[in-house]
Amino acid sequence: MTVEDQLKKLNLKIDTLVKLTALQVLGGKKKIEAVEALTELGFTQGQIADLLKTTPESVKSMRQYVRKQKLKSQASGTKKKNNNTPK
After folding, report:
1. pTM for the whole thing?
2. For 48-75, how does the pLDDT look when each residue is reduced to its tens digit (9 = 90+)?
3. How far apart are CA 6 and CA 87, in angstroms?
4. What band does 83 get if pLDDT is binned at 50, 70 and 90?
5. CB neighbour list of residue 27: distance below 8 Å, 6 or more residues apart
6. CA–CA–CA angle 66, 23, 54 (5° rounding)
7. What does the alpha-carbon distance between residue 24 and residue 79 come to, in Å, rounded to a whole number?
8. Which one, of 32, 26, 41, lies nearest residue 69 by Cα?
């Protein structure tokens, strides 16, 4: 077995460990929460889709939804702060 073959085999084992660990950490989270967490951990759209047994397009859609919700939340937080400032 060549060094390259050994490295490929090792890489597959590491990928399996990463997937198992990610699934364990995600536990009973909803898919959208899992997408958000995995995105923050640096997983790609394809990797997330593979882990959650869905399509990359679905992951993309969920990421966009989360991003919009965060922007809305930040905007409403800014409005509340501005309304509470002394005049």
Report:
1. 0.68
2. 999 899 999 999 999 999 999 989 888 8
3. 69
4. low
5. none
6. 55
7. 38
8. 32
The string of pLDDT tens digits covering residues 6-36 is: 999 999 999 889 888 888 888 889 999 999 9
Token readout for 81 is 């702060």
Distances in Å between the Cα of 71 and the Cα atoms of 27, 61, 67, 76, 85 are 27, 16, 6, 9, 21
- 31: three-class secondary structure by DSSP: helix
Q: Is residue 43 left, alpha or beta, with left meaning phi > 0 and alpha meaning psi from -120 to 50?
A: beta
Q: What span, in angstroms and rounded, lies between the C-alpha atoms of 3 and 10? A: 10
Length of the chain measured in residues? 87
Indicate the class that CATH gives domain 3-79. Answer: mainly alpha
